[in-house]
Every structure is written in C-alpha cells, then in structure tokens.
Amino acid sequence: MRFDPDVTLSVLKFLGFEQVFKNSLTGLPMGGAKGGANFNPKGKSDREVMRFCQSLMTELHRHIGEDTDVPAGDIGVGGREISYLFGQYKRLENRFVGSLTGKGLTFGGSLVRTEATGYGCVYFCENMLNHAGDSLQGKTCVVSGSGNVAIYTAENAIELGAKVVTLSDSSGFVHDPDGIDAEKLVFIKSLKEVDRGRISEYADHFSRAKFYAGQRPWSVSCEVAFPCATQNELSLDDAKTLIGNGVLAVAEGANMPTELAGAHAFVNSKVLFGPAKAANAGGVAVSGLEQSQNALRLSWPREDVDTKLKSIMSDIHQKCVKHGQANGYVNYVRGANIAGFIKVADAMLAYGVV
C-alpha cells in the first residue's frame, strides 16, 4: 500500500506485477498485488491522516482479507497509517484477523517487521559479497533515503562492520565522512520517526557532516550502494559515477530505484547488482511470517523471526545464483526473474484453464 503524490494506476499495475515475482522468490505461499492513493501524508496532522485512512478502508475492507489480499506498508504508509487502516477494518468487519501486516506489537504485529526490508537487503548484499569471496566488513556504504528501509539498512550494515556515510530525503542528502554510527542513528530515528523533520537537521547537529541540498548521494565514493528511497532515483549517469568510483555491489532497498539503463550499466560492468524483487523481499517475507503468527495466535521471539529472515534471503540468493550464473559472474537480475517466474508459471499450469 503506497501513499504518494506520484501514485497512478499504471505505477500500481507495474509494482503489482513485480510484487508477484518478489513474493514468489520468498518461497512463502503468497501471490502479489499493489494498491495505494495519491494522498500525500507529509505535512498532514495525525487526525487528517487518520480520516483519510478510515475513508479509504471504508471502501477497501470488502476487497481484502487474511485469505484474499493482505495490505502492508510501502512509501508513505508506516506504522501510523497501518494502525489507522487496521482499526477501521476491525470496526467494519468486527473481526480480529491478520488482514493487514506491519501492525503494532500490541495488536498482532511481528517483531522485526519494521526492520525487515532494510535488514533483508543487507543480508542479501552480504550473501552476494560472500559468494564473491568478500564481505561488508570494512566497506564504505552509501545509503539513500531516511525512512524505515534506509534507517534499518544502515543499522544492519553498521552491525556487520560497514561504514555508512550518507542518508537522504527529498530535500537532499547528508554526507558524514566519519560514518553514521549507532549513536547517530538514534538521532536520525528520532528526527524522522518522531519529529518528522528533514535530514538537513543532521548536519546542524553533527559538525563534521555536510548537507547537499537538492542532490542525491551517488557522487560520494563508496564500495557498496543501497538505493532505499524511491523508484527511478538512480540514473544511468549516477550508475556510471558509482562504477567510476569503484563500487563493488549495489543492493536495491526501494522498489525499482535504478533506471533500466543504469541497471544494464551495472550488469555490463560486472558489478554485483541485487534487483529489488530479490534484495528487498525481506519486508514481504516477514509480512508472511506475521500472517503465520496471526493464524497460529502466537508471537515468535525476535531471534526466531530474524533467523527465518536470514534463511529466506539466503534461499533467494541461492535461487538467483542457480538461474543467473554464467562465465564466472552472477547476473542477479536474470536469476531473480527466472526463479520468480518459474514458480508462478508452474502454479498457473497446475491450475489448468480457469
């Protein structure tokens, strides 16, 4: 579910198409769909957002359900919005079921769901590097965005020994040459998740950091790049800049953040390029695990969910390698597309003419 001024029917159709293959890659029993509205929650009060979510769910509730379509968060739809949507669903349906995922922990949510897309993206990147005989340890990383995906991508990369030097939002990006450590990340979480402020305030608070208004972070030299903001944020010119600066791996945390020409440039230059349908499948994977917990009326410990997430991302990586390896290089785009398609095609053939 996406709330963004750029949402159109064609965008949702394409994202839904991609979602089918992403969900297929997880190995979980899920189809795929996409929905949203061109409502912009930025600058709106909590009450305005609540009223919109309630109005939307008043129509949507008849089309969704725990065994039909199960919405989860995307751009503009975080914990606040999911809570309002679920509250209205429960009021209208008079049922407490796993009809949405990304819920709060006090009403059926799963541990690690908030972190899942970012954590999963880093686990996938680590798998790519490990397969090539390397790791994230000691690598300089550039991350775009400063929402859930970007924040928890940065957090997990830091935990695995990487040095994250950028974050961004729609106003520009900050570059911290000293690296964004765990303490600084606490400030960013408060800034973006509580105060809903701008990333420029990070540079006001930490003197060594510099804010670049209206720019994206791809000019900063790095070994690993994580585009985690929005679609089409990384152009061909950006890709050429990253390649020229010696980037080793790119893992897409956002949905389709790299333009097609940029993706081709990475593959042609033999950069380890993890496409969104594989690299950011961690979010929907833990959504599936949340559905399982709701159905069982159980709540699994954090360590159990994180272990399952790691395993799912490792399995996705293995599928990509199986179908994408040729001449000593793994084309993860090809591998993800083929692996995702095969499962969907097999199921459709098994159903017969319907």
TrEMBL record:
InterPro entries given in the database record: Aminoacid_DH-like_N_sf, Glu/Leu/Phe/Val/Trp_DH, Glu/Leu/Phe/Val/Trp_DH_C, Glu/Leu/Phe/Val/Trp_DH_dimer, Glu/Leu/Phe/Val_DH_AS, Glu_DH, Glu_Leu_Phe_Val_DH, NAD(P)-bd_dom_sf
Q: Which GO terms describe its biological process?
A: glutamate biosynthetic process
Site positions (Important for catalysis) are 74
Which organism does this sequence originate in?
A: Novipirellula aureliae
Q: Which PROSITE patterns match?
A: GLFV_DEHYDROGENASE (PS00074)
Question: Domain of life of the organism in this record?
Answer: Bacteria
GO MF term list:
glutamate dehydrogenase (NADP+) activity; nucleotide binding
Q: Which family does it belong to?
A: Belongs to the Glu/Leu/Phe/Val dehydrogenases family.
Entry-linked Gene3D superfamilies: Glutamate Dehydrogenase, chain A, domain 3, Leucine Dehydrogenase, chain A, domain 1, NAD(P)-binding Rossmann-like Domain
> What positions does UniProt annotate as the active site of this protein?
34
The protein's name is Glutamate dehydrogenase
Q: How does it assemble?
A: Homohexamer.
Record keyword Oxidoreductase present: yes
Task: Name the residues that bind NAD(+).
Answer: 117, 148
Q: What range(s) does the Glutamate/phenylalanine/leucine/valine/L-tryptophan dehydrogenase C-terminal domain occupy?
A: 110-352
Please give the start and end residues of each transmembrane region.
Answer: none
Checking Pfam families in the record gives: ELFV_dehydrog, ELFV_dehydrog_N
Residues binding substrate, per UniProt: 19, 22, 73, 287
CC per GO annotation:
cytosol
Classification from the root reads: Bacteria, Pseudomonadati, Planctomycetota, Planctomycetia, Pirellulales
